[in-house]
UniProtKB/TrEMBL annotation:
Alphabetized PANTHER family for the sequence: G-TYPE LECTIN S-RECEPTOR-LIKE SERINE/THREONINE-PROTEIN KINASE SD2-5, G-TYPE LECTIN S-RECEPTOR-LIKE SERINE_THREONINE-PROTEIN KINASE RLK1
The organism's taxonomic lineage, starting at the top: Eukaryota, Viridiplantae, Streptophyta, Embryophyta, Tracheophyta
Location of the protein in the cell: Membrane
Organism expressing this protein natively: Rosa chinensis (China rose)
Enzyme class: transferase
Protein kinase domain: residues covered: 515-786
Name recorded for this polypeptide: Receptor-like serine/threonine-protein kinase
Chain ranges passing through the membrane: 462-486
Topology relative to the membrane: Single-pass type I membrane protein
Length: 804
């Protein structure tokens, strides 16, 4: 036993000696023609002369993907300091991808099939060799040892001693601790010489006001403007001014670069910090200094701040944590720094529908505020009057009381924080119990007439189907009943008060609200949608759908929408506010959703994030589940497509346009009707004279789900090759080949969640089966998307066509 131990110690010592010899003889030089392969386990890498740094492929945590990166090689966590990226996405690749060092293009990264994924840009000259320096800089050099390209000139989230950031340069944060996609925070050395920390309104490049600034700007008559951010080899960081002065970023005790590894990183939560780690590999990274001192207290003039909307930021140590207040929950449970949504529906219309005035309870928080969400200030005030004023105001979500002043705030709330210096009280309105469903309005003189009409309809529905003779007789009775009720009315013929909680508008009211139907939002088969402002409080934006009576069946469309939408209530459906039924004018008034259609969102120049798209897919599925199974009257939408899915302020999916819906009574399972819907989304049974069931919506949802996954239109004959033109066929072929990176166009964020990506694609393929009986119900679709139900391997969606 002792001999075995001594032998193992001898072997271990031998390996250490060999490693030492290797490090001593390694020059860090890489010849043209050299290559690295992304392989599982310990992938090969190129080392610096000291062995401190490595350049190569790192397998991402809980993923089959590899990141081309540069890291500390001698410490246990092998901290990444640089990674290759394509704009917003890191160059994360599949197993078997290759990195080649070439003379003409420098570093070239290709997929296992040889498709170029990334290369070192802006190289002018012929590359003679590459070299990884002990500073952590990988340099491509020419014949005269001049630098043609280097990682120090293309920083990601970290800078190292000896590295500078010139004017126009920047660091950007990661999306999260493990997600290397572009995050919301940037450190910028501006052209005016100011070093700033800012937030970005993703997915755009819009920059909010700085939440930290070095204040090193200068005018034409001054030499005090900053020229660059320097991190010298001793570990000292400062902004160098034009006059040679050095403005230290943060006064702190100097740490020896000889004894410690040093780095400065812009963290995913927006804190810029310098770290140290003992070179002998013991211990962990320690914070030397960080800015800002308290990021929770840093206000952003617009945008959502450090934490998401409706969230509360608390400083723990030197880093922020985020949490939702009571009655709110995370939009994405996997993103604790993301947006919080209310778990109830709050609004003026919803409050009116409540059976009691006692619908809210208060959550009181001390020293908590959302300082940029005020819409009204009351002074003087007391805590009691502040709380009461918010309760009585349907626009108010939170009231903050401080020093005899009350600030009333509405959603969404931004820049939330806890600060012991506020000396304030926050009163948050939260609905009691389950009081979000619409209830009947107070009785009016026409209630009895409406009840008589409704009774006739229900009696007729219950007795239909008993016999042909009975049906004929019943129809006659029902018609006579309607005739007498109609004759007894003392209101104009078209003022038909429906059994729903909708407001009746006059045509002049809506004409005034839309400024003479001036601003067009969109156009459909049955009319045009205009933007309007209802003069309620400070003005409520709405979308007014003006139906075109030149089109056949448009009045039937109007009646269908009133009956169906007026009785539906779900967070993933567009809410109908009211209607106009005056003379020949038929108009519908919807809530206005600021972020437009899913089509505009998906197919814009800037690709939405994977997380946003997944949330949207969940929302559409849950909205359809409600229509099919959970509302009082089963509804088939018949025209599910991205143009009929709208996005609210939080980018929640809201299904719109029930004009093509086919109403099914609870005791019916199918119906025959004329072909409806839109090319590319229409289920095959429409063309085969087969019964139409809720499975037509399932088919359309499957097509939309593939569009959401791929960010591509279902049919595109102009912008892609013939092979890729029909999205459903192309995705199924890629699925059979197991080529997931092609399906999402090498999107790292999606490939990082490969299990979820596979599940979503398989669910979509089940939904688009030509045989309706093979398609799942929307309830099962939701369960499969959530991972509650196992998703089996789908068959070919089009077996009929393949047999032909």
């Amino acid at each position: 036993m002792a001999f075995t131990v001594r032998l193992l110690l001898l072997i271990s010592s031998l390996f250490l000696v060999l490693e030492s010899l290797f490090v001593q003889t390694n020059s860090g030089k890489v010849d043209v023609g050299a290559s690295l392969s992304a392989t599982a386990g310990n992938s090969t890498s190129w080392l610096s002369p000291s062995g401190d740094f490595a350049f190569g492929f790192r397998q991402l945590e809980n993923s089959d993907l590899f990141l081309l990166s540069l890291w500390y090689a001698k410490i246990p966590d092998r901290t990444i300091v640089w990674y290759a990226n394509n704009g917003d996405s890191p160059a994360a690749v599949a197993k078997g991808s290759l990195l080649n060092l070439t003379a003409d293009s420098g570093l070239v990264l290709t997929s296992p099939r040889g498709v170029q994924l990334w290369k070192s840009e802006s190289i002018s000259g012929v590359v003679a060799f590459g070299v990884l320096n002990d500073t952590g800089n990988f340099v491509l050099e020419g014949d005269n040892s001049e630098s043609l390209w280097e990682t120090f000139n293309y920083p990601t989230h970290t800078i190292l001693p000896g590295q500078d950031i010139e004017k126009g340069g920047k660091l950007r944060s990661q999306r999260s601790e493990t997600n290397f996609s572009k995050g919301r925070f940037e450190l910028r050395m501006q052209d005016d010489g100011n070093l700033v920390l800012v937030t970005i309104n993703l997915p755009t490049e819009f920059v909010n006001a700085p939440y930290y600034a070095s204040d090193t700007t200068g005018d034409s008559n001054s030499s005090t403007a900053g020229t660059k951010l320097e991190f010298n080899s001793s570990g000292y960081m400062y902004v160098l001014r034009e006059n040679g002065e050095k403005l230290t970023i943060k006064e702190a005790e100097t740490v020896s670069a000889r004894s410690f590894y040093l780095r400065a990183t812009l963290n995913f939560d927006g804190v810029f910090a310098q770290y140290s780690h003992p070179r002998d590999s013991s211990g962990n990274w320690s914070v030397v200094w960080s800015v800002p001192d308290n990021i929770c207290n840093m206000e952003v003039a617009s945008g959502l701040g450090v934490c998401g909307y409706n969230s509360i930021c608390t400083l723990q140590g030197q880093r922020p944590t985020c949490a939702c207040p009571k009655g709110y929950s995370l939009l994405d449970p996997n993103d604790p720094y993301g947006n919080c949504k209310p778990d109830f529906i709050q609004g003026c219309e919803e409050d009116k529908l409540s059976p009691t005035n006692d619908i809210y309870e208060v959550q009181m928080l001390n020293n908590t505020d959302w300082p940029l969400s005020d819409f009204m200030q009351l002074n003087p005030s007391t805590p009691e009057s502040c709380n009461q004023s918010c309760f009585e105001d349907c626009l108010c979500a939170v009231a903050i009381y401080r020093v005899e002043t009350c600030w009333k705030k509405k959603l969404p709330l931004s820049n939330g924080r806890v600060d012991s210096g506020l000396n304030s009280q926050a009163f948050i309105k939260v609905r009691k119990g389950n009081l979000t469903l619409p209830v009947p309005q107070p009785p009016n003189p026409d209630d009895k007439k409406r009840k008589n009409q409704t009774t006739l309809i229900r009696v007729g529905s219950a007795l239909l189907g008993t016999s042909i003779f009975a049906n004929v007789m019943l129809s006659a009775i029902v018609c006579m009943g309607f005739f007498f009720i109609y004759r007894k009315k003392h209101v104009r013929p078209n003022q038909n008060v429906l059994d729903s909680n909708l407001r009746s508008f006059s045509y002049e009211e809506l004409k005034e609200a839309t400024n003479g139907f001036n601003e067009e939002l969109g156009k459909g088969a049955f009319g045009v949608v205009y933007k309007g402002i209802l003069q309620i409080g400070s003005g409520v934006p709405v979308a007014v759908k003006k139906l075109d009576f030149v089109v056949q069946d448009s009045e039937k469309e109007f009646k269908t929408e009133l009956k169906i939408i007026g009785q539906t209530h779900h967070k993933n459906l567009v809410r109908l506010v009211g209607y106009c039924d005056e003379g020949q004018e038929r108009l519908l008034v919807y809530e206005f959703l600021s972020n437009g259609t899913l089509a505009n969102f998906l197919f814009a120049d800037t690709k939405p994030s994977w997380k946003q798209r997944i949330d949207i897919a969940y929302g559409v599925a849950k909205g359809l589940l409600y229509l099919h199974e959970e509302c009082s009257t089963q509804i088939i939408h018949c025209d599910i497509k991205p143009q009929n899915i709208l996005l609210d302020d939080y980018y929640n999916a809201r299904i719109a346009d029930f004009g093509l819906a086919k109403l099914l009574m609870m005791n019916q399972s199918q119906t025959q009707t004329a072909i409806r819907g839109t090319n590319g989304y229409v289920a095959p049974e429409w063309f085969r004279n087969l019964p139409i069931t809720t499975k037509v919506d399932v088919y359309s949802f499957g097509v939309v789900l593939l569009e959401v996954i791929c960010c591509r239109r279902s049919v595109d004959m102009e912008n892609v090759s013939e092979e890729r033109a029909i999205l459903t066929d192309w995705v199924y072929d890629r699925y059979l080949e197991g080529v997931w990176d092609a399906i999402v166009d090498n999107e790292m964020e999606a490939l990082h969640e490969k299990t979820k990506l596979e599940r979503f694609v398989m669910v979509a393929l089940w939904c688009i089966q030509e045989d309706p009986t093979l398609r799942p119900t929307m309830r099962k679709v939701v369960h499969m998307l959530e991972g509650v139900v196992e998703v089996h391997v789908p068959p070919c969606p089009s077996p009929y066509s393949s047999e032909g």
